[in-house]
Design a protein that fits this description.
It contains 12 helices and no strands. By secondary structure, the protein is an all-alpha fold. The protein has one domain. Helix 8 (about 135-160) runs parallel beside helix 12.
Length: about 260
């Protein structure tokens, strides 16, 4: 399974790099978008030193982590983005004839060019504005691994809705975009029902907010929460996809 995934994603990455002009334009466009977003926050903190206990360093860490999570997901698991459409178009049929795991091959169908721009900006933001040192690298890597697992797992779970209703084609992408939006703001702005959503349906809390808190104050409890949440969302995504595939094999899913 790993060898198959590795071969497929290598092809997807090479494909995304073939049109150099398009690749450069997409990557550069994402870099400019990220720079603009950073400038807005920099101007905000020039007037207001903090918001709910969050300062510029904290927001830079949050933005750096979410950019890197999206970058890693886009480069190495880019098929998550249009997985619902892939299901509804019936493109899984060709994969069913092969004795290989289907989900890894769906994730490796595409590598998103714009993700490279996020990769550059995420690294740069953590280095320049995040206020991190060499000793923070293990915690950052943990945050990235767990954040990526939760982000991709949530996207897979949303896409799996396509096994149950055709409207999931756009709904899954909307949920993924909302999850990304929730992950782009300080956790102190969430309260009540929005905080419940940020730690459940749109798990921004576990993708970036909890990891940022862990970077501020590393602890065994923080590590346990991050690792447990990654495992939980991975299992939920696997179960949702497996149940959906059972429906698909029985011919209960509308395609076309």
């Amino acid at each position: 399974m790993i060898a198959t995934y590795r071969a497929n994603i290598a092809i997807a990455i090479r494909t995304s790099l073939m049109d150099r002009t398009n690749f450069i334009l997409n990557s550069a466009g994402m870099v400019l978008n990220d720079i603009f977003f950073l400038i807005l926050w920099y101007m905000f903190f020039a007037g207001f030193k903090q918001v709910g206990g969050w300062g510029l360093h904290d927001v830079a860490r949050l933005l750096g982590i979410i950019m890197l999570v999206v970058a890693i997901s886009g480069v190495f698991f880019g098929g998550y983005r249009d997985m619902a459409a892939t299901i509804l178009r019936g493109e899984i049929d060709a994969l069913l004839t092969q004795p290989k795991a289907i989900l890894p091959r769906l994730l490796a169908r595409e590598s998103i060019a714009t993700a490279w721009g996020d990769l550059v900006m995420g690294i740069w933001m953590l280095i320049t504005f995040g206020g991190l040192g060499w000793s923070d690298i293990p915690a950052v890597l943990l945050a990235l691994v767990c954040g990526t697992i939760i982000y991709v797992a949530s996207a897979v779970a949303y896409a799996s809705l396509a096994f149950w209703f055709t409207g999931a084609r756009s709904f899954a992408r909307d949920l993924t975009d909302f999850m990304l939006l929730f992950s782009s703001y300080p956790g102190s702005i969430y309260s009540g029902m929005t905080k419940v959503i940020a730690y459940s349906l749109l798990p921004a809390g576990f993708i970036v907010l909890t990891p940022v808190a862990f970077l501020r104050d590393p602890s065994g409890a923080g590590f346990a929460i991050i690792a447990a949440s990654a495992g939980t969302y991975a299992v939920l995504a696997a179960v949702a996809f497996h149940l959906g595939m059972r429906r698909y094999r029985r011919g209960l899913v509308s395609t076309g």
